[in-house]
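To start, an entry.
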Amino acid sequence: MDFDFDYFVIGAGSGGVRSSRIAAGHGAKVGIAEEHRVGGTCVIRGCVPKKLLVIGAHFAEDLDDARRYGWTIEGKSFDWPTLRDNVLADVDRLNMAYQSTLDTHKVETFLARATLTGPNRVQVGDRDITARHVLVATGARPMVPDVPGAEHGITSNEIFHLDALPKRAIICGAGYIANEFAGILHELGVEVTLVVRSDTLLRGWDRALADRLLAISTEKGIQFRFNTVPTRIEKRADGTLAMHCANGKVLETDLLLWAIGRVPNSEGLGLEALGLELGANGAIPVDAASHTKLPWLHAVGDVTDRLQLTPIAIREGHALADGLFGGKDWVVDHACVPSAVFSHPPLASVGMTESEARQKLGNVKVFTSDFRPMKNVLAGRNERSLYRLVVDAATDRLVGAHMLGPDAPEILQALAVAVKAGLTKRQLDETVALHPTMAEELVLMR
């Protein structure tokens, strides 16, 4: 059978764009469909604009600290529309760069919703297209709870476009997105309350780091309401919101942000009609090489809900295209993947936490450095960093590294190489410290 395309990709986010580019590089005829904007969650409404807001917000502390370093800053003030519009302009730049990448590699772009209508068949707008292989890379979206009035809240999709900053904000959630936006809004002068269903912040992270972030955030003035479950959101005549909770409390706010997780974008694509059974949360089941049980259909990235991280989607898409069109079979290793929370201060982690290591390995050693960064000491800022290394006692191998403090994600990226490579604690100890830095603490832990 003659197909219109060798490869048709649904979703032009990080995973879909990389996969289509690699496939085209191997000589495949490629088409890609995107119903929103080329670039996907990370570039358009996720990691990139979020990190720019984190940087912008952190100037609040830097400008305060500057006084102790001899700088006088007269009449400092903050203008939200300036930051917002500059960030959105950078998003536009990246959107054009991604489109340019597709055009350069002769990938045909369809700016329309695509659905699967049968084996090797895709409906894009009013066009019926056939393809030898189809990739679903539709990503995920923020979850909104099923409670009356939930529509009065916004998600991370909308927060980048606020007309003005609110006086008060409630953020529902305990994960990285909730903590990141709590930090951003607080630094920009908003009264922030984090509402958490359970009694735990950042589930799955190193407990000592999560507890330290909670203590620092509380000291900064962010409020926390644990074991609090919203049951109804009421919009009042003056525009304010009232969150009614299961414990009988009513919390008032000007802005409500839902940050309670993300769900795969798999509904309405026609997957069930093809005989594919989706996971309970809508995840598309795939094998290690990103193939579904249909030999022509594949999926990568957040829609498969393996690890919802941009670099993972990119690698999965790359590996798939190499296997299908380049004669190079490899799979992505989902172990030892570094991750970060861009809170104030940020956290970064790679490998096993202490509890995971104890369950898996039994006998482990944990090395800790708890210190005040030099910048904070002179600034009179009582904020301590916490670095933790988890070591397999039997082999001396470094199996986990967890950090909270300024630039922790930047420092951890290099340390992730050591964990991935299976270096030993002794090899870290034998490395000479680079003084004076925060990172030197990693080779000085005895």
Observations:
- The first helix runs from residue 14 to 25.
- The CA atoms of residues 28 and 164 lie 47 Å apart.
- The chain is about 30% helix and 25% strand.
- The two ends are 66 Å apart (CA to CA).
